[in-house]
Design goal:
Blueprint lengths: L33 H14 L4 H10 L4 H14 L4 H15 L4 H10 L4 H7 L6 H8 L1 H4 L7 H15 L3 H17 L8 H10 L6 H10 L5 E8 L2 E8 L3
Antiparallel strand pairs: 1-2
Length: 244
């Protein structure tokens, strides 16, 4: 049998009234709310470290009054469970080692988490490895950019490093070296890119017709002007390097 006033599908039968909910709203907690706020804070700290700002935001969103939040945060600071300096040091070390973030990104992220500027300055101290980290960050990306001209190569790699938070001077140096390396990898065998620059630009690279043809087809990323050069009585191209 179905319950009174209900059909077998859970709908009310015609002519029946819905039951009135007499339970009322949940009872408000009584007593000092500080122990409950502390318990909520310790639960949060058990999952991950928090800055002072993050903890205040968390407790406020949980419904605690400002004075309760202030007292709870002060107590956590007193006991050492909150420490923005320790938080910033750990954040910088982890992001530098595992995510290869640069100084600009580190400063921005810590500021977003409410860390004071002076604390950030102490944490994001130059360790002399910024250039090394930037080079490591691009290792897997350079190969996918092979064959691009200088402008496209620099734009894509520079944007990537900027998002990682490296300073402009670091980005410029790393992109320049990476592009030069990618071009050198495509230079003709038996002669380095720098040596070819000097010999070709000065007009001293006089070789056989076959070798000139090989050099011409190898310099795909160069901008060249052809001029008349006589080698062995035959008109051959002379190469002037404009840019690389």
């Amino acid at each position: 049998d179905e319950p009174p006033g209900r059909t077998r599908f859970g709908n009310r039968s015609p002519g029946t009234r819905p039951r009135r909910d007499t339970r009322g709203p949940p009872a408000e907690p009584t007593g000092d709310p500080r122990p409950r706020a502390a318990a909520r804070a310790f639960d949060a700290l058990a999952s991950r470290a928090h800055t002072v700002k993050q903890m205040r935001t968390r407790l406020t969103r949980a419904g605690f009054e400002d004075d309760v939040v202030t007292d709870t945060v002060a107590r956590l600071l007193e006991l050492g469970y909150l420490n923005d300096g320790t938080y910033a040091d750990a954040w910088v070390a982890t992001r530098r080692e595992h995510r290869l973030h640069g100084e600009v990104r580190l400063r921005h992220d810590l500021a977003q988490r409410g860390v004071a500027p002076e604390t950030i300055t102490l944490a994001v101290v130059d360790d002399g490895e910024e250039l090394t980290r930037a080079r490591a960050a691009i290792e897997r990306r350079v190969g996918s950019l092979a064959g691009l001209d200088r402008e496209a190569f620099s734009r894509r790699l520079g944007s990537f490093l900027a998002r990682r938070g490296f300073r402009a001077s670091i980005v410029t140096a790393v992109v320049r070296d990476a592009y030069a390396s990618s071009v050198d990898d495509r230079d003709p065998p038996g002669i380095s890119g720098d040596e070819l620059d000097v010999r070709v630009a000065s007009g001293t690279h006089e070789a056989s017709a076959d070798h000139c043809e090989q050099v011409y087809h190898s310099l795909r990323t160069y901008v060249l002007i052809l001029d008349g050069l006589r080698v062995g009585g035959a008109a051959m191209p002379r190469f002037y390097l404009l840019s690389r």
